[in-house]
Protein: DUF1772 domain-containing protein
Amino acid sequence: MFAAALTLLLLAVGYFVLTTLVDLAPLNNVTAATRREKTVEVSVNAPVMTLPAVLVLVAAALHTSVPAYAAAGLETLILLGGLALWWLPYLAGVTVPWATAGTGETWAQLHARTYAKTIIVLPRIGDRPRPNLEHMILHSLVLAAAVITTAYAVSL
Structure:
């Protein structure tokens, strides 16, 4: 369970960094993001996303479940943040306050500029921004990491 948790946690971070910095069009559209936007996104989110992996390593080294539970809790918070950012605007038409931090744009404008030309498999709901495949994959990885990390914590 340890190896699966650690692998999923690191896979989610690696996927996030890769899709934030490397042009994989049409999966992503990093060419539409400014250098500053990409730098801020990685420098803020990658360390937070890496912390659960560090906590799982600490749990394994100390043979205690407390850091593993903390890792699972943090991964769940990361998942909830991603879901709030992407799925609330799509399903409920509600944009979270941090959605466009520092960009000077609305979520609809930012989405139109950076995500609208990527692969999107979800049906339209009015003119609401839709989660793209890139982020659906990321959310799936984070969900799997949260579930397996919780199972690892329980197993300790």
Q: What stands out?
A: The chain has a mean pLDDT of 96. The two ends are 10 Å apart (CA to CA). Residues 2-155 form one domain. The chain has one domain: 2-155.
